[in-house]
């Protein structure tokens, strides 16, 4: 804790005050000295050239240009340069020799300063020169470091030497072992002045010849080491030293024994050496070959004590480091040798990767020098050399290159503003104006603003210390977002680019409208006359404001890239985007507004009209946004125990269908519609008629009322009452008053939420101390309450979070953040087989943890919310909402935080953050707090007198008011998956259960063999026949050890294996039945090729299971391990007898692999119906049904994710869980159903404050304690759940969605209330359908035997279904010519691996009918009758869950998802019989008023590809589809 506090003081406080300079003990002496001298130069140089500012700027520019250029070139050299190595080396005593380059073009080297050697930068290394015959440069052949430690001296163990190029421990990390001294290695401190250390180095070449591996003497003498005073004693060379260096093989063995005596200490240090070598190789571009050598380091610890002569010798075996250097090209043909690694250079200077960054840094430094105020400017220029990392305002761990430019940019901006204010303040060009008694832009105002900016600039060190200013891109985004929202009425933005786009869009529209407004103002006005130009201005203002309110701030959603799977939702969302509707609505609204404005109604009815509109807006707003939401809350007014207006699902224990549309939801939607499109436009237009110059105010109020009308009635009523009755003399015109009050009220709402959060969080009766610091800080926070209130006002004014320090009761203001809050776009990337290596999938899949696998459910929940959230908000199912609100969705196992970021007119952009399923103890306590009811509480203070019926007790009502959250809804219905997991060990514990699984495994293999369309090909394959020929012998026995009497039902104990006879005795009946279900059966007798193939595949499958189980299938754990390996597709064919399967890999992929998975499902069903599957018919139908309706796959397979996102009805998987020491297997079963959630609305300032506190604590204060007090549970604020939802690694959510936009047009129930969008296509469709209905009605009226309903439903379809006897089956196929028949047959054995998604998710072995058949069914009404006669012979039936569309509408673009309207599953057919069921993928057809196929057309939709066209054809049936033209010709 002490070292951490010292590090914060050094890198946080001191670095912020100095602008970034501090002494880092982890860096070399050279780096610290360079930083110190550079900082002194930048500090003192302005005093030398105080008068000549131009020279100062020029020198600074030249200086920074040189530094950046050299730094850029050095990094380019490390990236692209070539490493030069020297392998032959000997030591010499002349370190100052100079040589030419290898090619005669080198530069001088040595101590002249041109060699950037590692020895001069790391300080703890020694250099020795080599005397190669072609290069006599001094190179590092070997080096050592002696570092004295009194503790180690007492134990006789010395610290290890550091390799020459080994970088020092990384920034921010403490060294694990005693590291080298950062001064010269012989330097000693005062505490160790009595110790004398001698180092003797001997290098032996391990590559030398000789049987006894002896080496030669490689060094003779070490040079004297330079150090600062007091000078160390130089190493002496004596006879004993020379004798110590003469080492042979016996000496090595003796030293090796001494090395072994060190035990575990040596082992740990050796690991550190190896890690250091790898780190160095990565730093210098290693990977080259290295020769082995032995390095012996002998330490003589001479103490002034009786043990002064004690000697400790340590021999270290290490790879010899070749001499390496880079060539730094100065001029063509001239280069310098650089012995410097990248890590040391990064510690010395910040890296700029692109040339533009270097130019920008030089320009910033020059601007700072030009605009600077001496000391303060020095701090800003230093950031361009070596920045403060991490900064107090940095949102991320590690090096943040953006934060580097924050200080100089802010400094230049403030200096420019100071200069502008000073220049304008001393001139008379600016005309002041007065607003509410305050004079703006007067001389005194501008000079005061200048002085405040000067003081603000001088306080930069303190401001940056507390992190009150964000990084540059965040500041730009916040500034533009606030301007767009408060000045132009825009919505929140999602990125800096979207903020620029939104503001430019608003400015462009304002400029366009203001031109018409200016022309209208200059035109002559009569007392009862409105100029035409002004009416045009009003129409354009309303239409363009409506259009802007319906557009997202991020235009990229219009051209979002296609997803990985075929999914109808993105196309549906793009179709619901409002561009097409606006093409009709905007001109229509402009024309209507023009007509109303030109009628002078707003002039003729004054002043009564204004008061009527104010009263109407107040009454409708109060009813819509206060009364109805309160009556629908779980605890209305925190007094009643139950909602007054309840949904139909409120009393249901388990929700089984989509939420029903209630009358009060329709009322809420229509009141909003009236409020947005009638009342507030009338209020604005009424005020604009007399106040036309306030164009921006009108646009802002119109856009705000269109997007978020929930709080407008409060602002409107206050403005009318305050300025009309209380203080009319301060009124500046109503529209301007309303405009200013809307900005003020938005800040007051923020202040109210902050004060509620603070008071709730620090309330003494519910404070939760997570640590000792919390208990210490609680009493100290009481005297600072006034300061806390000032901070709250300041933070509300600048939209900054108010965060608790380390989770305590002490609050500080953070830097401003956008509504989105998080600066970087973080979202979860699922780990599966598509983005991991095959080796990791087979051994230990890194994505096989619960959190990664469970994240898919939050992704599916995001998709469900994307489909329905906007409509549900407009129906009032989440209560009142506004921009930035946060909600928690809580279910049995799903707990997600939904952050609403942008609210438009018909769109909502949100982000979902999913928490762990099995959360921590603190999370479980908070989940209990939000899910438990308070209706049973009967307490009142210290007694329990009870409470009135359907009301809360006093204690419950009081406690609910002191929470930072409230329950908005208890039965919010969403489509999702119910998850059930069963322990596989308990289901396979006994041998009988494993025998059942193996039996189903064999039967599933037989099923897939017989269903495969390649069966005939396999039976005719010579390789397969040759391999299986031995199985035909009556005496053939497979005695593999993997077969066991306990688990194999066909095991022959007399033959000690499995024979053909024993196999046929058990499975021959099943083979024959499966073969009989084929369309073209093959021979299936005992000695037939089919039985032999089934026998071979079943033996192979069981042997593969035994191999994966390590031939220990009799034990449970190995059996489960092998079953899981086969389930995920890891088949190890190790027996030569099974290699015939490689003749066609479909034998494994299409037969054995799905057989393993299907057997697990059948084993699950066996517990509910143990005897039903004895019947082959039932078993065959069960497998076929599972193939159609369920996906059985490993969770790491990408098809698993695709199936869930495509709304597959059921899924099954086998999961291997290895978390927290547990090693278990679970069978995961998913069933699609409707889930019920509790919707908890959380104080948004509570969420922002806790998020900001976590970011400051973990990034800046570096608190890495996993049990820190700030994440302990606090039920009143849900502290643990909110903090754990932060972006990783600050929080630990298992899923964070990208920013997702939901559109109101995708909500079916809302469209049934408001109607669909009015687009050109819909208008055209309405006209065409109306004309068709009129034409058919007239035609039916002219016929005596017809009626409108019959012709409306498509001719004879009604009569066919109602009176089948009138159309007896006729065999007309022989009389109709058949030039091009199309035969539809089932695709036997097709698995999902071979089919495109999403068809592969639906069925692995089902046939599919061509959509052309259904298209042809609707050409004419007479074709219906004919095809009904032709296909009525028990071959074709249609499900009532789909209304068949006209042929011109049968296209993928018309696919719609309708999860809320599910059709009854009654069997409606064209004939009698149900041999060919048909279900449609196309889930929504808008055919209003039509009837067909026995009843009204209903809209069906699972919202998924799971309802695709499915066809089942019996083995004897097939369908021949004739060309439509021939049918028409035949009829005529």
Automatic annotation (TrEMBL):
Organism of origin: Sinocyclocheilus rhinocerous
Q: Which gene encodes it?
A: LOC107715400
* Alphabetized UniProt keyword annotations: Membrane, Transmembrane, Transmembrane helix
How does it sit in the bilayer?
Multi-pass membrane protein
User: GO CC: one term?
Assistant: membrane
The protein's location, in the record's own words, is: Membrane
- Taxonomy-wise, where does this protein's organism fall, top ranks first? Eukaryota, Metazoa, Chordata, Craniata, Vertebrata
Q: Spans of biased composition, class Low complexity?
A: 181-195
Stretches that traverse the bilayer: 36-67, 359-382, 402-421, 462-480, 500-522, 528-548, 583-605, 611-628
Regions of compositional bias (Polar residues) in chain numbering: 117-127, 1358-1385
Instruction: List the biased-composition ranges (Acidic residues).
Output: 131-141
What is the similarity comment for this entry? Belongs to the pecanex family.
What is the protein's name according to its record? Pecanex-like protein
Region of interest (Disordered), ranges: 91-198, 1352-1389
Q: Does the keyword Membrane apply?
A: yes
Give every Pecanex C-terminal domain span: 1084-1307
Alphabetical list of InterPro entries matching this protein? Pecanex, Pecanex_C
Pfam families referenced in this protein's UniProt entry, alphabetically: Pecanex_C
